[in-house]
């Protein structure tokens, strides 16, 4: 038994008055890991790595802004009298769905400006999103936030077999809690493997790997969200609330209990309902795109920008599309084509050119 477990210091190091938080470093590591995966996969399609680097530089700020706006909008009562706290993202308080909204808007604008199909680029980046979320959740671990309801130490150590440093960090306000950050991180790790397998299948169409990401992540988020004690929520239909609780029942059969959720704050967890809607929407988009013919391109098809020629290729002349430039003629050397032309002229006149070397006498 650990009577006095110690919480990790959220500050990694200081440079003068500047304090560098683990939260920011972990988010940065997640972003770089996602960038590496995107560049590596993009290389298979001949895409320059600068494209994904620029996308990251634009996408990360867009995601942070979107995540913070989403969170603050649902917590406005806590911020309206302390506007300066809106900008303190190092204290946590960003919403993943808001981050996705901001990043997607940025990606649509950026890919179109470069002449690429958004769906093709989104497919390449789908595993990167899961990788960023998988690593980023450990920032919540350091900050002791986004945790679940109370759990016994025996459940964490003996049933889940978690290492001491995780169990100790989950001792918050005098009680142990479910490490929901870990559940979501592991779910994302398995999801990356699933997407890696899917993207090698010939039946996969453009946009479907991106939709598969939403389906996988949202299923996990639906069940994990109800364990948390800090869910954003609202008052909605009792029928919808009852449906969500019924769908969550399998978790109770496995010994999990829902985290506390103040009924005065709401009866529906926003992220849980949104996760369910995203699963339905993603499946519908896949079906609609196939039925309407909008998903004719396959994942494994080449990716070409409509605004630039592929590197190393020249625009063929409309009048002579099959003509190949004679490089030897440009260098002042006799070419094979010119030699053939001379031979034909010599046949007509009955003359022949002397051989380069005299024939050997036998």
Automatic annotation (TrEMBL):
Chain spans, region Disordered: 306-362
The keyword Transmembrane helix is annotated on this UniProt entry: yes
Keyword Transmembrane: yes
Binding site for a 1,2-diacyl-sn-glycero-3-phospho-(1'-sn-glycerol): 137
Top EC group: transferase
Pathway involvement of the protein, from the record: Protein modification; lipoprotein biosynthesis (diacylglyceryl transfer)
Lipid bilayer topology: Multi-pass membrane protein
Entry protein name: Phosphatidylglycerol--prolipoprotein diacylglyceryl transferase
Primary gene name: lgt
